[in-house]
Amino acid sequence: MLRESYVQVVAELDAFKASGRLPNFTQLAENLRDLDISSATLASIYRQTIQYYVTKNHHLLKRDMPKLCSRYLAGMDVLTISVDTGFSACIVMRRLLEECPIRIQKQAISEMLKEPSAIWEVAEIQEEHRGLANRLEVDVARCNAADLVYSPDAAAHRHDAGLEYEDKLYKYLHEAGISFWTEDSLRSQGSVKTPDAKLQVPIAVNGIVIHWIDSKATFGDEISYRQHLEEQFQKYINRFGSGMTTHGLKNRWSWLCNEPHCLPVSEHSGVTGPSAAWLQCHQGVKRLNLKD
């Protein structure tokens, strides 16, 4: 994807966030069909932009929670607070549960976010707070339904997607006849920070020696790339040498752009991103060989 296309997509998604409406990614993909972007890619970009905002501004939400909690107790709707602050509904609800007069242990809040009715089991509710408890139970369920990023269902989906694309990577490598150690086998050997696949014999991809491959079930934008480079990839490079990362979304492989200046390239970072030469579709890895 070209940079200008990415900027256009983010602008479209920001309009949904500002209005408080949930995007219809299928319809949006149709509206942006000239960009040839799948609904899964749009959903991933949407989640990432939300996560970046939360990471950057979460301290402001914590600072304002006493005031926001007072507004909620005075009758303001939690989803209105979510839209006004720009934070995902479940993030706002978690902070409200920490701040509200009904005292709930932090570890119990996570349980309540998964099962709203648990409030009657995890909190000691005085008679004057029973109305508030009823409201919180309903609003937790509403927040879960309105949050595509931080709800328990969204977290479970991300976990499952990560496992799915890790399995797909292993399948493709097997079909390509490339021997490798899995993440689990590396950990059994004592490694702590490990990529999804460590190649037993390095391969060459577009003239770059690849010792390892890590699969990400997300869109590969610049911010996430640099975060992964700092938190994960640099450790792999130091231990195993140069490698590559794949970004799989549903039935397509996706990356930020194919312009050399947009993503750090291997001679600078030791990591190469997906290449249209061999990872454009499900058959991509089958073409992996020393002649590529």
Automatic annotation (TrEMBL):
Write down a Pfam family by its short name: TPD
**UniProt keywords, alphabetically:** Cytoplasm, Nucleus
**Can you tell me where the transmembrane regions are?**
none
Superkingdom of source: Eukaryota
A cellular-component GO term for this protein: nucleus
What is the first-listed, main subcellular location in coarse terms? cytoplasm
Key word Nucleus present: yes
* Annotated InterPro entries: CDIN1 (IPR029404)
Q: Where in the cell is it found?
A: Cytoplasm; Nucleus
Question: Know the name of this protein?
Answer: CDAN1-interacting nuclease 1
Species: Apatococcus fuscideae
